[in-house]
Amino acid sequence: MKKRIALVYGGASKEHDVSVKGYGYMRTLLSDTEYEILPVYIGIDGEWSIRIKGKDIPAYPTRKEGGSIYTGYGFIKIDAAIPLLHGVGGEDGTIQGALEVAGIPYVGATVCASAVCLDKALTKTVARSLGIPTLDDAVFSKKTDTEEALGLCREKVGFPMFIKPRQLGSSVGAFPLRTEEDFRLHFDEAMSLGDNLVIVERMLDNKRELECAFIEMDGQRIITPPGEILVDGFYGWGEKYGGETRVAPRAEIDSETAWKIQGYAELLADALTLRHLARIDFFLADGEIYFNEINTFPGFTAESLYPKMLEANGIDPRSAILSFIEDTLGGRTL
After folding, report:
1. What is the pTM of this model?
2. 160 prior amide bond cis, ω within 30
């Protein structure tokens, strides 16, 4: 009997559409395999559903039958799940926790690693503890008066700055701030989109955005040489998902810089106990390296740099996904 793999996608997140797009690409990768693929959709309202007999049937995970999805038609046994969710509710440990409670093994980072990595401020704290350089920042965890925040950021960070929600990806709510007018214009918006959890960092002009792919495959852990996002100006939503960005799966940098970035990525992967896949991002400016952030389930679309980096290093993305599934079916959990 075929093993049943649930692809959980959508989600009550501002990155819902990114997840849906990633689901389409993943479904293509997993076509014509020995697995039975079960799409499990989470709507923007947070409701779970499965399409049965042409109808969307409410569903939820349960520990019955050794890990199942329950619908009005009964229990559907799940052998493993791939949570194709981004941002809050997806990469923050909550979906991973739900699957743990239901006894359903899953691909990707564990509850703790997911929760820490989604929060950009917490991840930078880990990086600093490892001696990895990061940009100066100011962190906000509750609703704050704009003028009060401006004064703090002027003192701790200095213009130009960059503001982004601490627990969102895909450049949602992220804005460059070059003047006090920019700050006043975008601070409240970023706070609103980020549920009052934001980070303001020193902004680097003429920086390069370099990213390493972390992968566990067939018992080996690999961190690829850095790839690069080739974009002039701000790397926003349109550039990421509108096909407007050029990417280089292998960045044109000297071997010493590449080696140092890979070393930093390996330290972070070990400290945060990353599993299966992740993307670890850095900035390079004036010869200096700065850690940026980690995505525990990086974008997996035709435009995404992560699968392109795998291919550039001789790793077939489809084979990688199949390896993750087999490892998960082998029973690796917390």
Report:
1. 0.89
2. yes
Point out which residues pair with 140 in neighbouring strands.
Answer: 198
Element (H, E) at 58: strand 55-58
Q: Which residue has the tokens 């990895």?
A: 132
List 10's β-bridge partners, or say none. Answer: 42
Neighbours of 151 (CB within 10 A): 11
106, two tokens: 């899953």
Dihedrals φ, ψ of 303, to 5°? -90, -10
Domains plus CATH for the chain? 4-106 (3.40.50.20), 115-133+206-329 (3.30.470.20), 137-202 (3.30.1490.20)
The amino acid at residue 125 is: T
> pLDDT in tens for each of the 334 residues of the chain?
789 999 999 988 878 888 898 899 899 889 878 899 999 999 999 999 998 877 889 999 999 888 999 998 899 999 999 999 988 888 889 999 999 999 999 999 999 999 999 999 999 999 999 999 999 999 998 888 999 999 999 999 999 999 998 887 656 778 999 999 999 999 988 888 877 889 999 998 889 999 999 999 888 899 999 999 986 655 554 555 455 567 889 999 999 999 999 999 999 999 999 999 999 999 999 999 999 999 999 888 778 899 999 999 999 999 999 999 999 998 543 3
Task: Specify the long-range contacts of residues 241-249, CB closer than 8 Å, at least 24 apart.
Answer: 241/18, 241/21, 241/170, 241/301, 241/303, 243/303, 245/303, 247/305, 247/308, 249/305, 249/308, 249/309, 249/311, 249/312, 249/313
Residues 288, 291, 295, 296, CA torsion sign = positive
Contact of 253 with 284, CB cutoff 8 Å? yes
